[in-house]
Amino acid sequence: MEKGSPLRQFIAGVTVNIASIMVGTSLGWTSPSGPKLASTDTSPLETIPTTSESSWIGSLVAMGALIAPFAAAPLAEKFGRKMTLLGSSALFIVSWVLMLTAATVVQVLVGRFIQGLGVGFVMTVQTMYIGEIASNQYRGALGSLMQLCIVIGILYVYCVGPYVSFAGLQWACLAIPIVFDVTFFFMPETPAFYIAKGDKERAIESLSYLRGKTVEGVQEEMQEITTTVEESLKNRGTLVDLLRNRGNVKALIICCGLITFQQLSGINVILFYSQNIFASTGTTMDSAVSTILVGVVQVLASGACPLIVDRLGRKPILLSSAGGMCVSLAAMGTYFYLKYTNSPSLGSLGWLPILSLIFFVTMYCVGFGPLPWAVLGEMFPANVKSVASSIVASTCWVFGFLILQFFADMDAALGSHWSFWIFGILCAVAFVFTFTLLIETKGLSLQEIQDKLNSKS
Predict the structure, then answer these.
(1) Which backbone phi and psi does 431 adopt, to 5 degrees?
(2) What are the φ and ψ backbone dihedral angles of 144, each rounded to 5 degrees?
(3) How far is CA 251 from CA 215, 372, 376, 389, 452, in A?
(4) What sections of 381-456 are H helices per DSSP?
(5) What is the 3-state secondary structure (H, E, C) of 287-342?
(6) What is the pTM of this model?
(7) What is the DSSP letter of 102?
(8) How far apart are alpha carbons 440 and 457 in whole angstroms?
(9) Best label site of 9, 15, 31, 394, fewest CB within 10 Å?
C-alpha cells in the first residue's frame, strides 16, 4: 500500500484557516475599539455611541452571521467550497473599508453587519471544506485548527489595537483577507464536491494531491468517497430529508446542542468586552495587558487541541472542557460577589480574575471552542451536509446575538456575579448533555459514523 504524506492536506487546512483569522479579527475587534469609540480624543465618529448603540455594534456581527449560512450553503453546493470561501473575503474587505472611512455610528453598524455576513460564510463553508479534504486519521486535528486560527486573529487585534489609532487597526485588519485570497487561490477544491458534480477526473487529481500519492494509490479511498457521496446524492437533501432520517436527527440534536452550549458559556462576552471586564475588576494590572495575556493563553491552548484530539477523542475533551469552564466561571462570579458586597477579603484576591479567565479560555479553547465545529464536519452525509451546516451555524449565532445584545441589561439588573454564575450553571448542563448524548467519532470513517448514528443500540 502506497504510504503518501499528510503534508499537503495540512497545508490546505492551514491555508483555509487564514479565513478563521479574518473571523477572529472581527470577534476581537470590539475589545480594543470600544474604548477608542467611547473617547472624544480617539473616536473618528461625529458622536460618541450610546450604551444601546454600543450593544448593537457588538451584536450585529452575530446577526449577520445568523443570516449568512442560508446563502453560503447553497453557494457552496453550486460553485464549490473553494470559490465560496474566496468570495467571502470580499465581505471582510468591504467592512474594513467602511470602518476606515466611518464618520457616523450608522456606518460602523453597517460595517459590523457585513463583517457578520463574512463570519457566517466562513464558519459554514469551512467546516465542509475541512471535513472533505481530511483523511480519517487527521480529520480531528484539521477540524480543530479553526479555533486556533480564530484566537490568533483575536490576539492580533488585542496586541495591535490598544497601541495604534482607530484607523491603524482597520488597516491592520484589512491585510488579512487580502493574504487569504492570494494564498488560498492555489489550494484544491474538495474531491467530494467534484464527485457531486460528476467530475471524477478532477476529484482523483484533487485527492491524489491532498494525499501525496499517485492516482493508483488513492483508488481505494476514491471508491469509498464516491460510494458515500453518490448514495447520499441519490435524493437531493432538503430539510425534510434531514429530519426524516433517525441518524440525521440525532446528529442535528448533538451538533445544535454543542454549538448552543458553546455560546451559552459566555465566551463572546469575554472575547468582545475583555478590556472592559478587566477594567471593572479594579485590579492593578493594566486592562490591555491582561487582555493580551488572555489572548496568548487562548492561542497556546488552541494549539494544543489538534495535538490531542485524535489521541484522546472528542468526548473526553469536551467533558473536561465543560467542567473546567464551570469551575472558572464560578470563581469569577464569586470575585464579583465579594466586590459587590465590599468584602474585606477582596484585597487578597486581586489575582483571581486574571487566573479565572486564563483557566476559562484554556478549557474553552481545548474543547468547546474547536470541537463542536469539528464534530459538525463529520456527522452528516453529503446530501444534507449543507442544510445541516446552515441550521447549526445559525443556531450558534442566534444565541450569540441574544447574549451579546442583552448581556449589558442582565449585568445591570442582576450584577456581574450572577451573570458569571449563570454562565457557569449552563456549562454544568453542557457537561450532562455531552456525557449523555455525544457519540465518540475518533478514528471512524464518515460511513462508520453514519452507521453508528443510525444504530438502535
Answers:
(1) -60, -45
(2) -80, -5
(3) 34, 11, 8, 11, 10
(4) 382-414, 416-437, 446-454
(5) HHHHHHHHHHHHHHHHHHHHHHHHHHCHHHHHHHHHHHHHHHHHHHHHHHHHHHCC
(6) 0.79
(7) -
(8) 14
(9) 15
